[in-house]
Specification:
It is a single chain. The chain has 329 residues and is an alpha/beta fold. The protein has two domains: 223 residues, Rossmann fold; 91 residues, Rossmann fold (3-Layer(aba) Sandwich), CATH 3.40.50.1100. The chain is 44% helix and 14% strand. The protein contains 13 helices and ten strands. The strands form two sheets. It has a six-stranded mixed beta sheet with strand order 1-2-10-7-8-9. A four-stranded parallel beta sheet has the order 5-4-3-6, with helices on both faces. Bound molecules: pyridoxal-5'-phosphate.
């Protein structure tokens, strides 16, 4: 069976969302190029509208809805960034939007979703519980569910950042991509390997609750306990009845790397000190993998810096070299 998202789907998505998202810069990192011994580029999605790449998938999914769906409204469950992006895209399209969040979602993200005009439901202690609440509300209220990763329009939208990047830096041989539910890496890999069949795709997750890595090891989607992590945007399961991303990750991702909290913190510090960028844990995890000496790179390498929505107080603590152990990390 062919994979659910192909290069031409990502090319179509790029046309669909043109004008709805920013073309973010791909910058060469002097310090990381020196450390790696190959040219290293950073695709800065922390500069994207709403502070993460999630606006790409959300805008593509909303734009792909039929006109008559617009009166019904959309709903999702989110670790924060997808909810914010969907709220923004729905508002732009004039649609009502509801977002279900677990109590693990940081306050800065909760406030941003509210500010974008969505109706909020805080439900349960995990992304899976928030998901169950979203499905219940969708049934009761006739809302359209736009999931955070396991949907072809979401996957195709996320992949558009690779096409943009290859316009700026055509000779990339390896891409390094943060990995949670796998919507980002699935779309990125479909685009990248569609253009470059010999390209390498490396996924990076936190060690604490890496559901996709555990599922790849098991050969099928499995549940892992969700734990607090400074890469909060990477929390949550992949759904036991995953229908797109598990298959795509298994087919297209060459290697998955897992990192400890202290390693992720070092990535956040590095990009702030070297490049002046404010980046959240999930967004810094590719840089962290390189700094930890865990990336096997050959040829020009692009690291996707996926988002910048970090709580200011937490960011300050991390820059000072403190890991917030008291908060259970
Ligand atoms: C959602 C998110 C990810 C992971 O994306 P998946 O499609 O779930 O793998 C990575 N980084 C940031 C900042 C995110 O918001």
């Amino acid at each position: 069976m062919p994979l659910p998202v192909q290069l031409d789907d990502v090319e179509k998505a790029r046309c669909t969302i043109a004008g709805l998202v920013i073309k973010t810069p791909a910058v060469r990192s002097g310090s990381l190029s020196l450390a790696a011994g190959v040219p290293v580029f950073l695709k800065l999605e922390n500069r994207q509208t709403t502070g993460s790449f999630k606006l790409r998938g959300a805008s593509n999914a909303i734009s792909s809805l039929a006109r008559e769906a617009h009166a019904r409204g959309v709903i999702t469950a989110s670790t924060g960034n997808h909810g914010r992006a969907l709220a923004h895209a729905a508002h732009h399209a004039g649609m009502p939007c509801t977002v279900c969040l677990s109590d693990l979602v940081p306050a800065n993200k909760v406030h941003a979703i509210q500010a974008a005009g969505a109706v909020l439901h805080i439900a349960g202690h995990s992304q899976d519980e928030a998901q169950a609440e979203a499905e219940r509300l969708a049934r009761d209220q006739g809302l359209i569910v736009i999931p955070p990763f396991d949907h072809p329009d979401i996957i195709a939208g996320q992949g558009t950042l690779v096409l943009e990047m290859l316009d700026d830096v055509p000779d990339i041989e390896t891409i390094v991509v943060p990995l949670s539910g796998g919507g980002l890496v699935s779309g990125a890999a479909a685009a990248f390997k569609g253009r470059k069949p010999n390209g390498r795709v490396i996924g990076v997750s936190m060690r604490r609750g890496a559901a996709m890595a555990a599922s790849l090891d098991a050969g099928k989607p499995v549940e892992v306990r969700e734990l607090p992590t400074i890469a909060d945007s990477l929390g949550g399961g992949i759904n036991l009845n995953n229908s797109n991303t598990f298959r795509m990750v298994r087919a297209l991702v060459d290697e998955v790397i897992l990192l400890d909290e202290a390693e992720i913190a070092a990535g956040i510090r590095h990009i702030h000190e070297a490049d002046g960028e404010t980046v959240e844990g999930a967004g810094a995890i590719g840089i962290a993998a390189l700094l930890a000496g865990k990336l096997n790179v050959s040829g020009s390498t692009a690291i996707v810096v996926s988002g910048g929505n970090i709580d200011t107080a937490l960011h300050r603590q991390i820059l000072l070299g403190n890991l917030p152990l008291q908060a259970g990390y």
